[in-house]
Structures are given as C-alpha cells and as structure tokens.
C-alpha cells in the first residue's frame, strides 16, 4: 500500500476500496507491506510488516520502547521539521473546518525531555513491578527503562520507585503513580488496590527523603487522597505567585509549553481593554492563566475540582486578592449570558472534549472577546463553528506542541465580534 496522509492519531493512512487502512509507524509517500487486522471505525487497522520505499522524512526513533512496547508516542520516526509542520497543519485544518479564516502562527514547540507530568501504570509481575505507559491499543504495560519525552529527573525515579513498590503490600495487583515535577521537587501520588499500613507509610517516608520527594500522597483505588508522608512544603510558581497544588494536580505538560500558552493568551487580550475590565478564567485549574492575567486585570477564576479551587484560592489570598476563586462545574452550570456580560473578555481552557455547553452560552451573550485554549483540534473546530455562527471571528491562532511525538496539540485562538 501507499501511505497518502497521517490520520488524527498519527497513524499513516492508505486509501483502499475497502476504506482507509490505518498503519502505525508509517509516513506519507511510503510504500509499505502490512498485515490487515480488524475494522476500526470506517476503516481497517493494520500492522506494519516492512517499509518498501521509505519517506525522506523517516528517521531512526531515539527511544528503544517506541511502538515495539510503548504506545505513548506516535511519531518518533518522523523528522522534526516535517513533524512540526504536521502539528501546525492540525490547527490550520481545524480552523478551516470551523469556517474561520485566520493566519495560523508558527508552532511553539517544547523540546523532548521537558515533560513534567507522568501518569504511570503499575502492575505486580513475577519479577517485581512493571512501571510505565500502556502499550498501543492494549492493557499490557510497557515496563520502561527510559523515556525521551519526560524530564530526566522523573525518569531517574523509575528504578527506585520500582524497588520501593516491590516492598509495598498495598500494591497487590495493579495501581498507578502520578509524578508531577514541581518547583519544590517531584510530587508523588500513589493509587493502589490494597490498604497502606503504618509500616508501609514509614517505608514511603524514607523513600521520599532519600530521593528528594517532599510529599507522597496515597489513595485506595479511586478513593479519597490522603498524605502518606511529607517532609516539607510543595509549591509551583504561576505568574509570580506561589501555589501549593493538590496531589496529582493537572499541570500544563511542559514549562516551555505553559510559557507559550500564557504568552499567547496575554498577547490576545484586546488592545483597548480597560484596566478596570474584569476577565473570566473558565476551567481555571490551579491558576495557570489566572495569576499571569491578574498582573493587569482583576480575574474571576471558575473551576469545578475542589482541590484545585482550594489551592487557587489559598494562593490568591496570599497574593493580594486580584484573583477570585469560584467553585463551579461548568459542564453542568455554565456561566449564563447575564453573568458573562459583566466581563471584558472570557478566557476558557476546557478539558479534552471541549466546552460545548459553555460556548453555547457565550454565543448567546453580548460578549465581544473570547480566548479559547484547546487541547483537542476536533473539539476546537466544533466550538469555533458555533462561535462563528454567533458573529465571532478568529483574529489570532497559535499552535503549541508540548506533547512531543504525539498527535496531541494545544492551541490558543482569540475570537472577536
């Protein structure tokens, strides 16, 4: 087969009379041999057997786990210039589907080895504990020895974390470990399928001290988190404000990516926005955008997750109160037009599925300016089309790649009417 394009998941796509065939590890222009598998949506999934005619953009993957075991990366076999062009084109295509004519800026790219957050799967196996990401399309875990995406300080914890987990009876069969690299050092949240007793807490406390981990939290399955061991305070600087995130908190994936998003949002603020105008930050998290925006305007930050709101509120109070934290689940209780109309601009950074309910209210409001931060081009295209029908036009669009070698893309798009 001949690969004609890359699909949204980063797979090569070959067009056939039976429908598209999706083949991981291939690039446009390549002629390949593949073993056909099961139906996948309107097409067929296939496994690459050999590349008969390679693309000039093909390179040797740097990671030994790529595709063979680990399913986290999709495009390590693609040269960076071509990969970056494809990432930018994802935003170009999304805005075209939405009917929004806008010049897309050059890609802002975080380099490999800078990701500061990892959600690792754990599984007890005969030789110890497997730790890593899931294999592509499977429940099996790639037992990682290295990772070229993560910050090396997190990768350095793989081996000692395996060793301490072998000693924890709380990990009976399966669990997870969320590692966040804060400004205070690594922060660890363990979820296990068994209870953590006092002796195991002591083991974790010693582990934390030995490896510079100020806080280790734990939860039984999906239950309530609690602090298992803490040797010191934790913090992350956001817009010059010290925030103490809850265990396992959502962070922008890479510092360079966060900086690119913040810069794009601030640059997208209306030039004539009065200093007295208020900004609404929707899906605010722990204040990644709220605190930088508060440098020039008062901000009302809306977030539905209780731990994130508490962290944001505590930091805002210490910083002087230019940010008001409000707990509100915007999927069920979006801000209504009468509420939205009191703001000069609305910034929204919704989860992967977008902000369908909230965007519908923005479209009905009298707002003139909205800045949308997206992590999903498909949801962005849908929501941008709704805004377009309400008279909003995209005036700037910045793609940000903080997930190297993956199909995921962050975008900052400003709309005005």
TrEMBL record:
Keyword line: 4Fe-4S, Iron, Iron-sulfur, Metal-binding, Methyltransferase, S-adenosyl-L-methionine, Transferase
Pfam families linked to this entry: tRNA_U5-meth_tr
The keyword Signal is annotated on this UniProt entry: no
InterPro entries: DNA_methylase_N6_adenine_CS, MeTrfase_TrmA_CS, NA-bd_OB-fold, SAM-dependent_MTases_sf, U5_MeTrfase_fam
Keyword Iron assigned: yes
Binding annotation for S-adenosyl-L-methionine: 252, 283, 303, 349
Active site: 375
SUPFAM superfamilies according to UniProt: Nucleic acid-binding proteins, S-adenosyl-L-methionine-dependent methyltransferases
Example GO biological process: rRNA base methylation
GO-annotated molecular function: 4 iron, 4 sulfur cluster binding; nucleic acid binding; rRNA (uridine-C5-)-methyltransferase activity
Coiled coil start-end: none
Gene3D superfamilies: 2.40.50.1070, Nucleic acid-binding proteins, Vaccinia Virus protein VP39
Stated family: Belongs to the class I-like SAM-binding methyltransferase superfamily. RNA M5U methyltransferase family.
Name of the protein this chain belongs to: Class I SAM-dependent RNA methyltransferase
């Amino acid at each position: 087969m001949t690969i004609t394009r890359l699909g949204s998941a980063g797979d090569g796509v070959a067009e056939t009379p039976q429908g598209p065939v999706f083949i991981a590890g291939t690039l446009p222009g390549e002629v390949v041999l593949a073993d056909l598998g099961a139906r996948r949506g309107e097409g067929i999934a296939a496994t690459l057997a050999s590349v008969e005619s390679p693309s000039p953009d093909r390179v040797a993957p740097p990671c030994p786990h790529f595709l063979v075991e680990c399913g986290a990366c999709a495009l390590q076999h693609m040269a960076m210039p071509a990969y970056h062009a494809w990432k930018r084109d994802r935003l170009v295509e999304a805005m075209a589907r939405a009917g929004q004519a806008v010049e897309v800026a050059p890609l802002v790219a975080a380099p490999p080895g800078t990701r500061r957050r990892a959600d690792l799967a754990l599984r007890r196996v005969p030789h110890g504990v497997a730790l890593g990401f899931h294999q592509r399309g499977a429940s099996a875990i790639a037992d990682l020895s290295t990772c070229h995406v993560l910050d090396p300080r997190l990768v350095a914890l793989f081996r000692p974390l395996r060793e301490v987990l072998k000693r924890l009876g709380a990990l009976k069969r399966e669990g997870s470990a969320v590692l966040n690299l804060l400004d205070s050092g690594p922060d660890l949240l363990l979820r296990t399928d068994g209870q953590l007793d006092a002796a195991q807490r002591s083991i974790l406390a010693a582990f934390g001290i030995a490896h510079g981990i100020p806080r280790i939290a734990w939860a039984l399955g999906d239950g309530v988190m609690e602090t298992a061991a803490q040797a010191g305070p934790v913090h992350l600087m956001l817009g010059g404000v010290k925030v103490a995130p809850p265990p396992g908190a959502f962070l922008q994936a890479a510092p360079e990516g966060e900086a690119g998003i913040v810069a794009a949002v601030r640059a997208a603020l209306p030039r004539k926005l009065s200093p007295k105008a208020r900004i609404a930050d929707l899906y605010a998290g722990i204040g990644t955008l709220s605190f930088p925006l508060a440098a020039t305007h008062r901000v009302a930050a809306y977030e539905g997750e209780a731990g994130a709101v508490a962290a944001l509120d505590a930091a805002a109070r210490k910083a002087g109160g230019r940010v008001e934290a409000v707990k509100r689940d915007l999927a069920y209780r979006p801000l209504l037009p009468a509420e939205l109309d009191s703001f000069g601009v609305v910034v929204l950074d919704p989860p992967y599925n977008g902000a369908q309910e909230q965007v519908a209210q923005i479209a009905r409001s009298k707002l003139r300016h909205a800045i949308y931060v997206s992590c999903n081009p498909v949801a962005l295209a849908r929501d941008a089309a709704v805004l377009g029908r309400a008279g909003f036009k995209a005036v700037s669009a910045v793609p940000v790649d903080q997930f190297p070698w993956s199909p995921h893309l962050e975008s900052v798009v400003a709309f005005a009417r």
